[in-house]
Every structure is written in structure tokens, then in C-alpha cells.
Write a structure and sequence with these properties.
The protein has about 300 residues and is of the alpha/beta class. The chain has 13 helices and nine strands. It has helices spanning about 1-30, 35-40, 45-50, 105-110, 130-145, 165-175, 195-200, 225-230, 230-240, 260, 265-275, 280, 290-295, and strands at about 60-65, 70-80, 90-95, 115-120, 155-165, 185-190, 215-220, 245-250, 300-305. Helix 4 links the parallel strand 3 and strand 4. Helix 3 crosses helix 11 (about 265-275). The termini are far apart.
């Protein structure tokens, strides 16, 4: 009788262990951003809506496995790149704390559909900018490799970077502290760790070293977003300390984990303007009546592009 009970308990424990393993596998591989976010995320302006929608390019992707901290490099690119002779702008993404780039594939697919080569990796500790540096270094090597589909396809004059949370702090290291930092032309920091918190965590970044245009985006909801990561006063200080062309806004109602996709219409417009010279996208940030400043879904907007 005791043997039967022990056997039953053993089976139950094995089943529980299997369920836990499946749950952990799911949590580590699930897509954090839904496939149809470009269709379901509300917008408050025509330009935002245009660039939140999918672009005109079909998208292909590939995954490169690594033995270093990156674990994987994910590459999303316009499918017509394979037959094209043109060069393409590049954007490198930096992960938030504990996140893996492979969980944000729908985000990269969207940006790639607008004509970008988009790169990410699976390093969950992005703050130093080194993961982004190694990732960019990979595509630059591919650009010089005659056997690569990316041979001669990188537009060296139009390279950008963006990141979320810890990855937002990583953006400032990426564009200031590494061998290829001077290749970056524009950046976007989404719900970035504010300066004091970054210092406390050992992630100090020097905003005085930033020379390229930066778009800051944050949310307005949730204790973690507005009391820990980027409180209102710290958000304003971070913006004020940037001595470079800049724009910023808070997405009304967005929480820490949602700014990365709820503001994606303007992030895409930002890179379309900065890296592709798109005049329609520029109207979100420039001219007599920038759309960002009058969009009711945003608040605390500021633009200083001179």
C-alpha cells in the first residue's frame, strides 16, 4: 500500500516538474508583443497611424547562434535585399532587464517592413552597450563578406539604435563609448532608466557626450514606470541634460512594458526621418505644427531640433 502511494506521489511530482518546465519554456520563448499590435494599438494622428502600420516591404529573417553573451543575433530585413544592389539603413535594438531579443520579433518585423535591416540579440544585460556593439560589428563584417547576403548592403551613413528600460540606458553607452559609436546617426530611448538610478546600479552614462538626435519616450501609468524607472522630474532632467537635437513625449496610459510598442508609430517615423530622409515622417517632429505636439494620446511633449 505504501509502495503504491509513493509511486503515485512520484508520478504526480514528475507531472508537476514537466508542467513547470513547459511553463518556463513558454515564458522564455513567448512573444511579448502581439502579432497584430500594428492594427490594434490606438493612434492620435495621421502620421502616427501611417508609420504604425506595416510598411511596403515583405520581410525575411534569420537567426545566428553565438557562443558569447549574445547567445543569438536576430536579423530582420526587407526580402528584396537579396536581389537588390542598394544599401539599407541599419537599426540595432537593446533589451530591457531580463528580456531576450527573440521575444520581440514582431517589433523588428514592423520596422524592417519600412526598409531597415533590424538587429537584436539575446543578451539580457544590455546596459553597457557592448551587446549592441558586438551585434553591429557582426553586420559590418557581413557587409564585407562576399559570401553573405548582406555583402555591400549596409548604409554606413544611416545607422541608428534604440532600446527599452535598461536598453534605454544602453542606448547612451552604445552611441558614446564604443569603437563604432561614431557610426550612429540617430537614437531612441524608450522608458530609459533615469540618471540617478543608472548610477546606483553601476550603469552611469554621460549625456554630455551625446551628439546625435535622440527621441525619448515614456509612459504615464504604473508605479514601476513613474516612480522607479523614469519619474516625471527625472524624465525632464534627463531631457534637459541632453545637449543634442532631441524630442520627447509620454504616451498617456502606457505602462513600463507597453511603451515599447504603443509609441512605435513615432519611433518608426523618427528613424524614417533621420535615416531615410522621409519628409512626411519629419512632420511629426518639425515644421510650424509638429503632429507629436498636438497628439491627444501623448503628453509632456517637447521638441528641440536646432
Amino acid at each position: 500500500m505504501i509502495r503504491k502511494i509513493l509511486k503515485t506521489i512520484g508520478i504526480i511530482l514528475l507531472v508537476l516538474a514537466a508542467l513547470i518546465a513547459l511553463f518556463l519554456f513558454y515564458m522564455n520563448h513567448r512573444q511579448i508583443i502581439s502579432r497584430n499590435y500594428t492594427e490594434t494599438t490606438p493612434t492620435g494622428g495621421d502620421i502616427e497611424a501611417k508609420y504604425l502600420a506595416m510598411g511596403s516591404h515583405e520581410v525575411s529573417s534569420m537567426t545566428v547562434r553565438r557562443d558569447d553573451s549574445l547567445k543569438k543575433i536576430l536579423v530582420f530585413y526587407p526580402s528584396d535585399l537579396k536581389e537588390s544592389e542598394q544599401t539599407y539603413p541599419v537599426v540595432v535594438y537593446s533589451n530591457g532587464t531580463g528580456q531576450k531579443g527573440s521575444q520581440y520579433k514582431n517589433l523588428y518585423k514592423h520596422l524592417a517592413s519600412w526598409g531597415f535591416i533590424v538587429l537584436a540579440n539575446d543578451d539580457p544585460e544590455s546596459w553597457s552597450g557592448l551587446p549592441a556593439e558586438l551585434t553591429l560589428d557582426w553586420i559590418l563584417e557581413e557587409d564585407g563578406n562576399p559570401n553573405s547576403i548582406f555583402y555591400g548592403r549596409v548604409d554606413y551613413d544611416n545607422i541608428g539604435t534604440y532600446g527599452h528600460s535598461q536598453g534605454g540606458a544602453a542606448v547612451f553607452h552604445t552611441i558614446c563609448d564604443h569603437e563604432h559609436s561614431d557610426l550612429y546617426k540617430a537614437a531612441a530611448a524608450l522608458s530609459p532608466t533615469h540618471e540617478e538610478l543608472a548610477d546606483a546600479l553601476g550603469w552611469h552614462f554621460d549625456l554630455n557626450a551625446v551628439k546625435i538626435p535622440v527621441f525619448l519616450l515614456a509612459g504615464t501609468e504604473g508605479e514601476f514606470e513613474i516612480e522607479t524607472v523614469i519619474p516625471y522630474e527625472k524624465y525632464n532632467l534627463l531631457y534637459d541634460h541632453l545637449n543634442a537635437p532631441k524630442a520627447c513625449a509620454r504616451r498617456t496610459g502606457a505602462q513600463h512594458g507597453t511603451t515599447v510598442f504603443e509609441g512605435d508609430g513615432y519611433v518608426t517615423a523618427w528613424f524614417m526621418w533621420q535615416l531615410q530622409g522621409d519628409e512626411e515622417a519629419a512632420k511629426a517632429f518639425t515644421g510650424d505644427d509638429p503632429e507629436l505636439l498636438r497628439n491627444p494620446r501623448y503628453q509632456d511633449q517637447r521638441i528641440d531640433m536646432n
